[in-house]
Design brief:
The protein has helices spanning 11-15, 43-58, 79-82, 103-112, 114-122, 149-180, 187-197, 245-257, 333-343; strands spanning 36-40, 73-77, 91-97, 128-132, 140-146, 208-213, 216-221, 227-236, 266-270, 276-282, 285-297, 302-312, 317-326. By secondary structure, it is α+β, with helices and mostly antiparallel strands. The strands form two sheets. Strands 6, 7, 8, 9, 10, 11, 12 and 13 form an eight-stranded antiparallel β-sheet that branches. It is elongated, with a radius of gyration of 23 Å.
Length: 351
């Protein structure tokens, strides 16, 4: 099913023009919903070349949830709409065929510079640029360019995952993190993690300490009809990362501590759909990221989890952060995204 954010372009938006090529002296606050993107292109290129591949690209499920939730919402506008308030949107993706003489092509050339776009015309690998706070703050603008509409489509295939990963991290920083730590972070629990495990991790205000064992802390947040959980665990640094190690650890801890009213029930990782794993870097640390689903053995509960297995070589140890969510009546994507924001504070300097 195609889900595209509907955009109303009122006369006010079109008439409030101005020079798009010059950054304003005062940059207004950006607008737009969480994980919302505005795509900008010429009408003809969009209709004839980009609409279907861009829709397929942006209309993805959020990974490893038990039910469908879209990763992003997006809408399409042309140059005339961009001249209005749309230019203040927080997340913009602007497509340009650099061989035509359209207003969007002129805009990209003037914003990025002629040398920049000239290089793009001669190097197919030089296919996109990222600029922040062009017309508002905070804002991220992706300029995707090529020497033909067909190459624009190829650029989506080749660079799309990198672009969305950059956009995702931008949203975590600018939207999810501020929301997670309102009105301020939990100073007491943040100190607890530091004192017990020598880990800098900014704890959200609603969490409480559920359990403490050697090398292990379990934090919980219990909003209405939901449960957010965080394991923090340390062990000796392995000689190499075993992709099965995070699963084995979380299953061991789940069997020992996460139970229901049924004596025989305990938490395990759900192997039905497998896991999504990749190596990432956060604050200079090598991390094996694992996304998957969990379930209660012998009971009817489950949900998504996010796991970071972190190589802390300076301290000769590995650190595991495991966030798992139970929200049978609510959206789960937002809760996992909040986990991403929490995990991003690992070993940051906390003021």
């Amino acid at each position: 099913m195609i889900r595209i954010l509907a955009v109303l372009v009122l006369g006010l938006l079109v008439s409030s023009c101005g020079d798009l090529t010059k950054a304003p002296d005062f940059k207004p606050s950006s607008g737009g919903g969480v994980d919302e993107i505005m795509v900008v292109a010429d009408d003809s290129i969009w209709k004839n070349h980009l609409e279907e591949p861009v829709t397929d690209w942006l209309n993805k499920d959020f990974e490893m949830l038990p039910n469908y939730e879209p990763a992003y919402k997006f809408g399409f506008v042309n140059y005339e709409a961009l001249k209005g308030l749309i230019k203040q949107h927080r997340n913009l993706i602007i497509f340009a065929d650099l061989t035509d003489n359209s207003k969007i092509t002129k805009l990209v050339t003037e914003v990025l510079g002629e040398d920049y776009t000239a290089k793009a015309l001669n190097d197919a690998n030089f296919s996109y640029a990222v600029k922040r706070n062009v017309w508002s703050e905070p804002q991220i603008v992706f300029f995707i360019f090529a020497n033909s509409p067909g190459q624009l489509v190829s650029n989506i295939t080749q660079k799309g995952d990198v672009i969305l990963d950059t956009l995702s991290r931008h949203e975590v920083t600018e939207k999810y993190s501020p929301g997670l730590y309102l009105p301020h972070y939990n100073i007491e629990l943040t100190k607890k993690v530091k004192q017990s495990l020598d880990i800098d991790l900014k704890m959200p205000p609603e969490y409480f300490l559920a359990l403490e064992k050697p090398n292990f802390l379990w934090f919980r947040w219990e909003p209405s009809e939901a449960s957010n959980n965080l394991f923090v665990f340390t062990e000796a640094l392995p000689s190499a990362i075993d992709p099965q190690r995070p699963i084995a650890l979380r299953d061991s801890l789940g069997k020992a501590y996460v139970q229901t009213k049924l004596d025989s029930a305990y938490m395990v990782s759900d192997t039905t759909f497998g896991y999504k794993q990749r190596m990432i870097t956060v604050n200079g640390y090598e991390i094996l990221e694992t996304r998957g689903l969990w379930q209660m053995e012998h009971d009817f509960m489950g949900g998504p989890f996010l796991n970071y297995y972190i190589l802390d070589k300076a301290n000769n140890r590995a650190v595991m952060l495991d966030g798992f969510v139970f929200s049978p009546k609510g959206h789960k994507k937002m809760r996992i995204r909040f986990m991403e924001a929490l995990f991003a504070t690992f070993q940051q300097k906390i003021k």
